[in-house]
Design brief:
The complex is a heterodimer of chains A (536) and B (293). By secondary structure, chain A is an alpha+beta fold. In chain A, 32% of the residues lie in helices and 20% in strands. Chain A is built from 17 helices and 18 strands. In chain A, helix 1 crosses helix 8 and helix 16 packs antiparallel against helix 17. Chain B has one domain: Orthogonal Bundle (MetI-like fold), CATH 1.10.3720. Chain B is mainly α and 293 residues long. Classes of the chains: A alpha+beta (536), B mainly alpha (293). The interface between A and B is medium-sized, with 30 and 23 residues.
Chain lengths: 536, 293
């Protein structure tokens, strides 16, 4: 066993060394050529339309084909404030007291069919995202509540006029799903992009076999000089982790861009040593344990509070981080963000206390008061191992410590969402995954469903909405932080609308010959592959 | 005058003697029976045998190899594998026995009734059985779980349904020959009801093949439950179940903690093997032709 551990330690050391070595490598002169093969840890995406979908399966398959107006800096993707122009020429300074943003659009950009891309295409795309016509679906409409209108006064200018000034706007604009589509096609058939690809990004569409693979070839007319470095890419769909790990091990694929559990990392590092590089990051994703307040006794805040109090976050997070893709204890806001609660602030809320015995005693007392001692209920979960099932197994054991008897019902993604939407669950393992760290919008998940369509808690709460709106419109960062605390405390402590679990941790293992790519806190970011190159 | 019968030796064998004779003549079957009995004892007395709670996480003992504290090691949550296997025996045997007995009983009744009534009833029942038997057991079970969902009760239903036609087909063939014997005709002409004739006169005569099938069914049902759980369609965490233990640990920890996969796999293999050996021996012991050899 000791030998085994030594081997693992040696392997990890080599990987760390390789990761360190990767830093100067990114400063090397990129080599041109080669085809990058990577795995997409999913079955076929529901469609290829980035505006309609919010699954990473769509993004990992299609991001290299498209341009966006702005993007997170690919050289600094961990930042939540470092944005760069993709199709614009310069990041604008807001005017009109922060309510108007004017973007100049690059000249000479072409769609892959050879037609020019103009400000009209950008404006029409954003008009459809912000305010989709009847019958057209925009998954990001709710994030753009601050936008009043999008105009293009000429072929080189796009103007966003906001209803109110907010620091949430620019990060929302850098949404990686916000592909710039062709105006003519959008107006003629908005559903065209569900099954077809036509972008202006670094790679041109080559072929797509549903559920098997999608391929792209280098776009010679790409507007960022010298990029892309690759001749093409081949993305292979593989839902099973063992298949993906085997593919990387056998060098049939260089990587996957979602994230692996620690066990898979250890396995690859142990076997491949410095042939693989490990990049890690906090992940802007978290599982939530959401009680359905339309079902008794979960309409009783005492029962919901007891559920939160039973869970030992501080002991669970470090232990779970060894076996699952989770790591950090946090509240509603992505840990590390300026708006996130400090540990001291967290410990004041239900479920974050450091004295777990005291918390569980209070939980038992609350259950007794609510007449819910020995409560039996079912936890609805999604049939995804990492980290959903790990979170559920942990939470069920924690709840058993206050006498609750919890069983689990695991459903495939489709029926799971049907269950959430129909409210046919008692408590569900949900998730809140966002792309750019944009806490003001990210926390909207806990707003009632009348405001945020993907909330399934079954409650209406005008006070929560009021607190949120006050925070969203607050221009002063310090006061905004105070208002975030009030919002968070109300949602997690006063009402216990949802119960947090440790925030996810992203581990990417890639072949060391893959250069130029940097990890970010989201599996939705930095995926257009323009700056990726192969050191072979 | 002494009655003739008084001169005949009384051939009454004690239960113990019969068991010893079975053990002597069927050593492999006895080995199978021992495995089955061990599994049954484990399942029935899990609370007293298991050294730890099967569901309690112990983060201080995650993926520990076999040791004095944990004889079979621990899984990724630090749960004692021996305890989970012992409790898993209960899950396996409950599902195995209930599925086998319910499926077997329904098959017995349908098979005998089909043979007894004959005609269009026999035709219809047999065609339905044909349809059900066209699907392999696991495929049929998957279909049932897909329709009704997961959970112990649905898994039992999923495994029971495909067992019914398999039993009915075998039982019918035995019952067909019994239908023609004179005492059945005598029962009919005496005005006995169909139910009485089937249950009192026909069923007891097909019990031998039925019992043999039942032992095989228990093994098949345990294997089916493990397969469904492995595919994520059977019982769910944290319920201890052998197939589920394979699903949770087999892939992710195959190289770093192989005991997580090895011991539940062994439990499944041994138990199914035990039922199979015992069933074969039982067939040999009950079958007069085999008994004479």
């Amino acid at each position: 066993m000791k030998t085994h551990l030594r081997g693992l330690a040696a392997g990890l050391s080599m990987a760390v060394a390789a990761a360190l070595a990767a830093t100067p490598a990114s400063a090397q002169t990129p080599k041109r050529g080669g085809t990058l093969t990577y795995m997409i840890p999913a079955d076929a995406p529901p469609s290829l339309d980035g505006h309609k979908e919010n699954t990473f399966a769509t993004l990992h398959a299609t991001a290299p084909f498209y341009s966006t107006l702005i993007a997170i800096n690919p050289e600094n993707p961990s930042s939540s404030t470092d944005f760069v122009c993709d199709l614009c020429t310069e990041m604008p300074k807001p005017t009109d007291d922060g309510k108007t943003y004017t973007f100049k659009i690059r000249k000479g950009v072409k769609f892959h069919d050879g037609t020019p891309l103009t400000a009209a295409d950008v404006a029409r795309t954003w008009q459809y995202i912000v305010n989709p016509p009847k019958g057209v679906s925009s998954a990001r409409e709710a994030y753009m509540v601050m936008v009043d209108k999008v105009e293009n006064p000429d072929d080189e200018t796009v103007v966003f006029k906001l209803k109110f000034a907010t620091s949430a706007f620019v990060p929302a604009l850098a949404d990686p799903f916000a592909y710039i589509y062709k105006k003519d096609i959008l107006e003629k058939d908005p559903a065209w992009y569900e099954k077809n690809v036509l972008g202006s990004g670094p790679f041109k569409f080559s072929s797509y076999e549903i559920g098997q693979s999608i391929k792209g070839v280098r776009n010679p007319d790409y507007y960022h000089e010298g990029q892309p470095y690759l001749d093409g890419f081949n993305a292979i769909f593989a839902a099973k982790q063992s298949v993906r790990v085997d593919a990387i091990r056998a060098d049939r694929a260089a990587t996957e861009f979602r994230g692996m559990p620690p066990s898979a990392r250890d396995e690859l590092v142990k076997e491949l040593g410095d042939k693989v590089t490990v990049q890690t990051s906090d992940w802007n994703c978290v599982n939530l344990l959401t009680p359905n307040q339309k079902k008794k006794p979960f309409d009783d805040v005492r029962v919901r509070r007891a559920l939160a109090l039973a869970i030992d976050q501080w002991k669970g997070a470090p232990a779970l981080s060894k076996i699952a893709t989770v790591h950090t204890v946090g509240g509603l806001v992505f840990p590390g963000s300026p708006l996130a609660a400090t540990k001291e602030e967290l410990t004041k809320m239900a479920g974050f206390g450091t004295d777990i015995e005291k918390a569980r005693a209070e939980a038992r007392k609350l259950l007794k008061e609510a007449g819910a001692e020995g409560l039996k209920f079912e936890l609805m979960n999604r049939n995804v191992d990492q980290p959903y099932k790990f979170i559920a197994t942990w939470a069920i054991d924690e709840w058993s410590k206050i006498g609750l008897k919890v069983t689990q019902r695991v459903l495939p993604t489709g029926p799971f969402y049907e269950g959430l939407r129909a409210g046919t669950f008692e408590v569900a393992v949900e998730f809140n995954c966002q792309n750019l760290v944009n806490p003001l919008l990210d926390v909207a998940k806990v707003l009632p469903r009348s405001v945020y369509p993907e909330n399934y808690g079954g409650y209406e709460d005008p006070k929560l909405i009021e607190l949120y709106n006050a925070m969203l419109r607050e221009p002063d960062p310090a006061r905004q932080r105070e208002k975030m605390r009030a919002f968070e405390t109300y949602a997690l402590d006063t009402q216990v609308d949802t119960i947090m679990t440790p925030w996810w941790s992203r581990i990417i293992v890639h072949r060391s010959y893959m250069k130029g790519w940097k990890i970010s806190p989201s599996h939705y970011l930095n995926l257009n592959l323009a700056n990726v190159w192969l050191d072979k | 005058m002494t009655a003739v019968t008084d001169d005949l030796p009384v051939r009454r064998r004690s239960w113990l003697a019969a068991s010893l004779r079975f053990a002597r003549r069927q050593p492999l079957g006895t080995f199978g029976l021992v495995i089955v009995v061990i599994a049954a004892i484990a399942g029935l007395s899990a609370e007293w045998i298991a050294p730890y709670s099967p569901t309690a996480n112990d983060f201080a003992a995650m993926t520990e190899p076999p040791s004095a504290a944990h004889w079979l090691g621990t899984d990724q949550f630090g749960r004692d594998l021996l305890s989970r296997i012992v409790y898993g025996a209960r899950t396996a045997l409950i599902i195995g026995f209930v599925s086998a007995f319910v499926g077997g009983f329904l098959g017995l009744v349908l098979g005998v009734a089909s043979a007894y009534f004959g005609g269009w009833i026999d035709d219809v029942l047999q065609r339905v059985m044909d349809i059900l038997m066209a699907f392999p057991l696991i495929i049929m079970a998957l279909a049932v779980v897909a329709i009704f969902g997961t959970g112990v009760q649905n898994v039992i239903a999923a495994i029971t349904v495909p067992l019914v036609p398999r039993c009915a087909r075998v039982v019918r063939s035995s019952a067909l020959s019994i239908r023609e014997v004179p005492y059945i005709d005598a029962a009919r002409t005496s005005g006995f009801s169909h139910a009485r004739i089937i249950l009192r006169h026909m069923v007891p005569n097909v019990v031998a093949p039925f019992l043999i099938m039942l032992t095989a069914f228990v093994g098949q049902a345990i294997l089916a439950e493990a397969s469904l759980s492995y595919l994520g369609l059977g019982v769910q965490e944290p319920t201890p179940a052998w197939g589920l233990m394979l699903q949770g640990g087999a892939e992710e920890y195959a190289s770093t903690a192989p005991w997580i996969a090895i011991f539940p796999g062994l439990a499944i293999a041994l138990t199914v093997f035990g039922f199979s050996l015992f069933g074969d021996a039982l067939r040999d012991a009950i079958d007069p032709k085999m008994r004479e050899r």
